[in-house]
Amino acid sequence: MRQPQYPTSLGASDADTITLLGQNLATDIMGKVGFGELTMWMVMQKRPTPSQVRVFEAVLAALADHGFTPTAIAARITYLSAPDSVQGALASGLLGGGSRFLGVTEDCGQFLNQVLTNAKANGKTPETDAEFDALALAAVREAKQARKFVPGLGHPVHKNGDPRTPVLIGIAEEEGTRGPHTRLFEAIGRVHPQVLGRTLPLNGAGVCGAVLADLGLPLSLLRGFALLARCAGLLGQLAEEERNPIANDIYMSVDRNADYHNPE
User: Fold this and answer.
1) 43 and 110: one domain?
2) Is residue 258 part of a domain?
3) Which of 16, 70, 141, 241 has its CA 20 to 30 A from that of 84?
């Protein structure tokens, strides 16, 4: 009876060697290929260019840590409860990546791609800034009519502009990867006040989704890259928790200030 086959182009090993992406892991990759480059290579199944790697690693840096967000607090509290389970603490933080934190990266990339796909299907692929503005205006109007948020628009802290956004766009421009997703995102930033009646910042998570989509990375995995970045940040949070613990103070503050009400 023929044994089943399980094809892979990633890693494999025998008694003497480990092969990854067709390369000898020990002699061709270790010490020669950076982690960001390797991540892109594994996902894309082709080696990224130095320009693509620079943009990708800028995204990882942008999303690694943003202070005492719910993901960071969850990781610290879990580590307080189970200090023997680093993986549990990291996982608890990563599980909090959703539509309000971290998940915006994927949501924005998919939103922009859908708008561009629809425009192409209608024979209206934008090329000029004016055409991108018109497309963005229609997309924002449609979202408002559907009572939906435009992913990547607005930030709870950076009311006057997310400092990450212009830097990431600038790096993408420098490296020649600023494509239609990023241009459409910029256009949304220009035209949305006409529809919403107020000016909101383009947030860093959203621009990360735009530039990652322009790199050709799978849209269904964009949240995964945000989680990859945040995993590094959470590891830093746990290291700081060991040096300067605050999790117990957070726990005691909530517990001691609980306001009990009898159920109705």
Assistant:
1) no
2) no
3) 70
101: which DSSP letter? T
Average pLDDT over residues 96-125: 89
For residues 33 and 120, state if they share a domain.
no
CATH number, domain containing residue 111: 1.10.230.10
| Cα separation, 35 vs 37, whole angstroms | 5
Can you tell me the distance from the alpha carbon of 162 to that of 144, in angstroms, rounded to the nearest whole number?
A: 23
| Token pair recorded at residue 171 | 């790096």
Rounded to whole angstroms, the Cα distance separating 155 from 97 reads: 16
Residue at 240 is within a domain: no
- For the beta carbon of residue 94, count every other beta carbon within 10 angstroms: 18
State which residues form the domain around 18. 8-48
Q: Tell me, yes or no, whether 205 lies in a domain.
A: yes
Q: Which of 134, 135, 127, 93 is nearest to 111 (CA)?
A: 135
- Judge whether 31 lies within some domain: yes
- Using alpha carbons, list the distances in angstroms from residue 81 to 20, 40, 65, 85: 38, 35, 22, 9
